[in-house]
Write a structure and sequence with these properties.
The chain is α/β, with parallel strands linked by helices. The chain has 21 helices and 18 strands. Bound molecules: zinc ion (ZN).
């Protein structure tokens, strides 16, 4: 591994690299657009250019001040480590380099650790300072990150790591390399303890830091324009002898490829981090007391509609979408993106953490849209394999944090396409189905529109499966069925009736446990009220399920699916 300290930071607009800003007491030049900025205003904006959004590098002290609640910072001192294990000398000797870095920064090494609070929530923070030998990862830095993880474990609180590094510290040789394993192990201990871990990626984050603790955390947030990668851009360009694409390795580039959860401006970080910490906080024991259950469980109580009409209502563009439900129900929803496999972030699946009436929950589902533009942006709610892999990653996170999962299903089916097949659509669906059957937390599914085939079931292996009054659930679309069995897609209405895709048919089969009523005429006529009815149904279901422990939940969930189609009723 090489230490590859990249050239000066570029702005989010991918402007050409410019020299470092000229230092002046009153004014400085923006490192992104070069406009002259009044220093006091620039400081008030936390070092962000108001013209182009360029995020300057912060020192450890500036970073702690910008993130943590005032007067909450308590330093954590890591164990002593060796200073020059190899007696290393290049053009200058390593001890000389170290002492100069210490003098110029006032830091013992590249990482400082502190206990503190963000928006009132306790957290342990490890912050890297790029000024200290390029934030390179040596023994002391690795020890500091490990000490931070151990402090979070001791306090039973979340860990936040703010990264800025050129890579492993060459002057400490193989011992520097070993810090990648040491810090990785420390993070895994937090996984086992169910404690939330977050990385804030700042510019630049490379090499051994990117390939260890920076990317092993539950949530990765990056500042705009921040670059992260294993090999530095100059090394790559020299190796492949090609020009790299604009914005290569920037936060925005990584987000599009599903490698980070979000790109957030510096000013909104305390809020975003505060919401994440709130969603990982211990759940209240007494919760959900006043909501009345709206769910219908008797097929005779349902309004009978021709299945073909239900199919049309289920697809109505004015029905509340996943995004509408999230807005209507949750406090402080933070979307978490990407499967971290580089296959791209599938926008047909949207999920994240939020707080439902004081209870942390993970909500995930298919996102369609109300307009053509929105539908296109979300691939018409038809996920790629990356969408199911993202869902699986988030459901594992909920399992780790012991947070209930709510899935909202609304898809015509998984995306049928060349790339989807190449990336293993069938495998992604199968693995999601199997994963859901094993989740140790309450899982509630509501089919809010179309429940199309395996692409729907992949998010619907739940303890409670509910269907909205005009929702559908089917092994194949009526059009697809008609084309195959009637040899005519025009016979879709006949197929819809024969398949029993409507609420009454599905309730009689026991495939759904209950039906969520819709406002008269359908959810599209009063989307806000329709959303509240779904929300109330979810609250009641989660409230009931929270009384069971993990083994009981898993056993009953598996029994629920075990009995389907048997002649003897095996309900438990
Ligand atoms: Zn600027």
């Amino acid at each position: 591994m090489t230490s590859t300290v990249p050239a000066p930071v570029r702005g989010a607009t991918a402007a050409p690299a410019v020299p470092a800003p000229a230092a002046d007491a009153e004014w400085l030049a923006c490192g992104g657009c070069r406009v002259l900025l009044y220093r006091k205003r620039f400081d008030r904006l936390l070092g962000v250019c108001p013209e182009c959004g360029w995020h300057s590098r912060l020192t450890v002290d500036e970073r702690l001040r910008s993130l943590l609640d005032p007067d909450s910072v308590r330093p954590v001192t890591p164990a002593e480590s060796v200073h020059d294990p190899l007696g290393f000398t290049d053009l200058v000797d390593y001890p000389g380099r170290l002492s100069r870095a210490r003098e110029s920064t006032g830091l013992a090494d590249a990482v400082r650790v502190a206990r503190g609070r963000i928006q009132g929530h306790p957290v342990v923070v490890a912050v890297m300072d790029f000024r200290f030998l390029g934030g390179s990862l040596g023994v002391a830095a690795g020890e500091a990150v490990t000490a931070a993880a151990e402090a979070a474990l001791a306090d039973s609180c979340a860990l936040l790591i703010v990264t800025a590094s050129g890579g492993a510290r060459m002057q400490e040789g193989a011992l520097a390399l070993m810090q990648m394993a040491k810090t990785g192990n420390a993070l895994r201990a937090l996984d086992e303890a169910g404690l939330l871990t977050i990385t804030l990626v700042t510019d630049p984050t490379y090499g051994g830091v990117a390939a260890s603790f920076a990317t092993l955390t539950d949530v990765i947030i990056a500042e705009p324009g921040a670059r992260m990668g294993f090999a530095g851009p100059r090394v790559i360009a020299q190796t492949i002898r090609q020009e790299l694409p604009a914005g290569f390795q920037t936060a925005e580039f990584l987000l599009e490829r599903g490698l980070v959860d979000g790109v957030r401006a510096r000013g909104e970080l305390p809020w975003v981090l505060g919401q994440l910490l709130a969603a990982a906080a211990p759940a209240p024991a007494d919760w959900g007391g006043v909501v009345v259950d709206p769910v219908l469980r008797d097929p005779a109580a349902l309004v009978r509609r021709p299945p073909a009409e239900v199919v049309r209502l289920a697809r109505h563009l004015d029905r509340p979408t996943l995004a509408d439900h999230l807005t209507e129900w949750l406090d402080g929803f933070v979307e978490l993106r990407g499967a971290r496999d580089g296959a791209g972030d599938c926008r047909a699946v949207v999920g994240g953490l939020g707080v439902l009436d004081g209870l942390p929950v993970l909500v995930i589902g298919h996102q369609k849209g109300h307009s053509t533009e929105e539908l296109v942006r979300h691939s018409f709610g038809m996920p790629s394999p990356a969408g199911y892999r993202k869902a699986a990653r988030l459901m594992r996170l909920a399992a780790k944090l012991r947070v209930p999962i709510v899935t909202l299903v609304d898809t015509a089916g998984a995306h049928p396409g060349l790339a989807a097949e190449e990336q293993g659509q069938a495998v992604a669906i199968a693995e999601s189905i199997a994963l859901m059957g094993s989740l140790p937390v309450p899982v509630v599914t509501v089919i809010t529109g179309e429940g199309g085939s395996g692409g729907a079931l992949a998010l619907a292996v739940a303890d409670r499966v509910l269907l909205t009054e005009n929702g559908t659930y089917s092994v194949i679309s009526p059009e697809g069925c008609a084309a195959i069995l009637w040899r005519s897609p025009e016979r879709a209405d006949d197929a819809a009736a024969a398949l029993g895709v409507d609420a009454g048919s599905l309730l009689r089969l026991g495939v759904v446990d209950g039906v969520v009523p819709e406002p008269p005429g359908g959810a599209h006529l009063d989307p806000a009220r329709a959303s509240r009815l779904v929300r109330d149904a979810v609250v009641v279901a989660v409230r009931e399920l929270r009384t069971s422990d993990a083994p009981a939940l898993v056993a009953r969930r598996r029994a629920r699916f075990r009995r389907f189609g048997l002649t003897n009723d095996r309900r438990t």
